[in-house]
Amino acid sequence: xxxxxxxxxxxxxxxxxxxxxxxxxxxxxxxxxxxxxxxxxxxxxxxxxxxxxxxxxxxxxxxxxxxxxxxxxxxxxxxxxxxxxxxxxxxxxxxxxxxxxxxxxxxxxxxxxxxxxxxxxxxxxxxxxxxxxxxxxxxxxxxxxxxxxxxxxxxxxxxxxxxxxxxxxxxxxxxxxxxxxxxxxxxxxxxxxxxxxxxxxxxxxxxxxxxxxxxxxxxxxxxxxxxxxxxxxxxxxxxxxxxxxxxxxxxxxxxxxxxx
Length: 260
Known about the structure:
- It is built from eight helices and 14 strands.
- By secondary structure, the chain is of the alpha/beta class.
- Strands 1, 2, 3, 4, 5, 11, 12, 13 and 14 form a nine-stranded mixed beta sheet that branches.
């Protein structure tokens, strides 16, 4: 039952070229940075990544992307990652864009053993009708498009069929975790982490604080350990090394203070 491994490198054992990964995080919040850096160091390539977005230039999954290690991305938006946009538009990267809520449910469904489900999101658009550019050719033409999906009516409303997602591995970050793999996430860092963890056949969690079995309040656990196979405890320095995508500072207030 003790799922703790000594290092991130040991936790990533078995991740090979062409593996599929579900990765938690939203922007740079709750991103498993230590595992991503360790994965970069292994040199694996041809990865298929399922994540809300693909990090930013120089951060999160953007590190693997810039090194040409990612072949396919399933996500909900490109965001501020210029390299992501460049690779997509130049035909170097296959990108399956899906509505954000649909992506969340596809991960959850896959983790629960549900092969497919119907949702109204995307009906009447290329999400359902097909034709979304998945890959461009070098000359800018569309080389691969999304296929049409089944649409069915329920209670007078049309719904589109979406498939659950499962991946070879999942990489997530939690604020606290115990040796059994039970995880607690901190506020907005919870985002896609529990869902990504559910979808992975082998889920690896980096935790900022490691607890002994029984120390976590059962009512506070966001993800039960049944979904987690490996746990890596971060050093205090690793746990404190957090980034934000864009820092904005408001004008000085009447009292002369600056609010962040």
